[in-house]
Specification:
Layout: H1 2-22, H2 30-52, H3 57-75, H4 80-88
Helix pairs in contact: 1-2, 1-3, 2-3
Length: 89
């Protein structure tokens, strides 16, 4: 269980780091993004482990990645040019 949780936190941090590196202007705060990724992945791993039980480490880490990416997508802002165009109409 410790290894699954640690793997989920590392995977969530890697996802968050990649997201801030690839789209730096689309996230509100770098520290918020880097904190949300590991927290969401850990939540997803713990939730999946409580549903499936022990003995499914691949599924737990896959669910951690999915939940981490899904909650990071909530933080994404629309591009700035779309906001200006919508305000002009």
């Amino acid at each position: 269980m410790i290894w699954e949780a640690l793997g989920a936190v590392i995977a969530g941090f890697v996802i968050a780091l990649a997201a801030t590196h690839r789209l730096p202007d689309r996230f509100p705060s770098r520290t918020l993004t880097l904190a949300t990724g590991p927290g969401a992945a850990l939540f997803g791993a713990l939730l999946t482990r409580s549903i499936l039980g022990p003995g499914h480490p691949v599924q737990v880490l896959a669910a951690a990645l999915v939940v981490g990416a899904a909650l990071l997508s909530v933080l994404v802002r629309p591009p700035r040019r779309r906001l200006r165009r919508a305000a002009a109409v």
